[in-house]
């Protein structure tokens, strides 16, 4: 039987920037152990069926399949989320949007809408931080909604209302204090679509026309009809799209839109509030 250290060494040729870490995550997943356990017990022998299962995961990873899809898990905002090939893989840059949302001067029981929720990452992170907020999350993909429902049931049961919807269709008669979204924003001919994990993620959650702005333009144009007086809209976008998104917001009647950078220093989230009638 192979030892832990031998199995990890077999993953040295994995693609990507962190082959050792990926091998550790995959072996830990197969064994049901933490990475710390792997460090502590490198001489531990692994039963043949488990070693074979690990070998199969290495083969799939070598073909490019994302680690998150192989394990069915990805951490976001310190939460372990289930993911599948029906959802985008949550990324650290999206936490910029969560941080901004939590800093807004919203009512204690704010009504919040997450458009295109996918795995539920944004809605669940906000629900875990603001237990009194009334959060609605929608997605056009029923498969993605099933993943989001599982995550809600584990992490914040009863605190996020999920709906099958093409953007605002299921909330036509409602108004919100905050609308958030990580919509599709990649150009249809972008090289980015053929790189790394992105090549395996659902195109419908990535691509938004030739400029990457088709969905953002629709959300910005329609959001004022669903926001309360002084309500906020926060949108994630590509790191070269901030100026265009600010311009779209201004054209839609949002005064003074602002942009925040992610941890890599890229302009990542743009937001603005509707004019307050009391001001």
From TrEMBL:
The protein's enzyme class: transferase
Keyword field: Methyltransferase, S-adenosyl-L-methionine, Transferase
UniProt-listed SUPFAM superfamilies: S-adenosyl-L-methionine-dependent methyltransferases (SSF53335)
GO biological process, one term: methylation
Gene Ontology molecular function: nucleic acid binding; peptide chain release factor N(5)-glutamine methyltransferase activity
Residues engaged in binding substrate: 182-185
EC number(s) stated in the UniProt entry for this protein: 2.1.1.297
Binding, S-adenosyl-L-methionine: 116-120, 139, 167, 182
Keyword Thylakoid: no
Region (Disordered): 256-279
Keyword set includes Methyltransferase: yes
Domain Methyltransferase small: 104-189
Pfam family, one: PrmC_N
Domain Release factor glutamine methyltransferase N-terminal: 16-72
The reaction(s) this protein catalyses: L-glutaminyl-[peptide chain release factor] + S-adenosyl-L-methionine = N(5)-methyl-L-glutaminyl-[peptide chain release factor] + S-adenosyl-L-homocysteine + H(+)
InterPro entries hit by this protein: DNA_methylase_N6_adenine_CS, HemK-like, N5-glutamine_MTase, PrmC_N, RF_methyltr_PrmC, SAM-dependent_MTases_sf, Small_mtfrase_dom
Role: Methylates the class 1 translation termination release factors RF1/PrfA and RF2/PrfB on the glutamine residue of the universally conserved GGQ motif.
The family this protein is said to belong to: Belongs to the protein N5-glutamine methyltransferase family. PrmC subfamily.
The protein, known as: Release factor glutamine methyltransferase
């Amino acid at each position: 039987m192979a030892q832990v250290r031998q199995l990890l060494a077999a993953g040295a040729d994995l693609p990507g920037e962190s082959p050792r870490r990926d091998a550790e995550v995959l072996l830990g997943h197969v064994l049901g152990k933490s990475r710390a356990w792997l460090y502590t017990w490198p001489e531990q022998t692994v039963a043949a069926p488990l070693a074979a299962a690990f070998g199969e995961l290495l083969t799939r990873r070598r073909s490019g399949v994302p680690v998150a899809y192989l394990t069915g898990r990805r951490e976001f905002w310190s939460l372990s989320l289930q993911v599948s090939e029906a959802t985008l893989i949550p990324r650290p840059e999206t936490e910029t949007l969560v941080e901004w949302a939590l800093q807004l001067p919203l009512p204690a029981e704010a009504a919040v809408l997450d458009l295109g929720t996918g795995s539920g990452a944004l809605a669940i992170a906000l629900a875990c931080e603001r237990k009194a907020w009334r959060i609605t999350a929608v997605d056009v993909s029923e498969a993605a909604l099933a993943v989001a429902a599982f995550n809600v049931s584990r992490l914040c049961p009863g605190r996020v209302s999920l709906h099958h919807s093409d953007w605002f269709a299921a909330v036509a008669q409602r108004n919100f204090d905050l609308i958030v979204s990580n919509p599709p924003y990649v150009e249809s001919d972008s090289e980015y679509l053929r790189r790394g994990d992105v090549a395996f993620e659902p195109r419908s959650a990535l691509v938004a026309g030739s400029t990457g702005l088709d969905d953002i333009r629709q959300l910005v144009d329609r959001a004022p009809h669903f926001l309360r007086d002084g309500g906020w809209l926060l949108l994630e976008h590509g790191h070269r799209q901030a100026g265009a998104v600010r311009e779209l917001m201004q054209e839609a009647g949002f005064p003074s839109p602002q942009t925040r950078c992610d941890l890599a220093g890229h302009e990542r989230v743009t937001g603005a509030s509707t004019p307050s009638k009391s001001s």
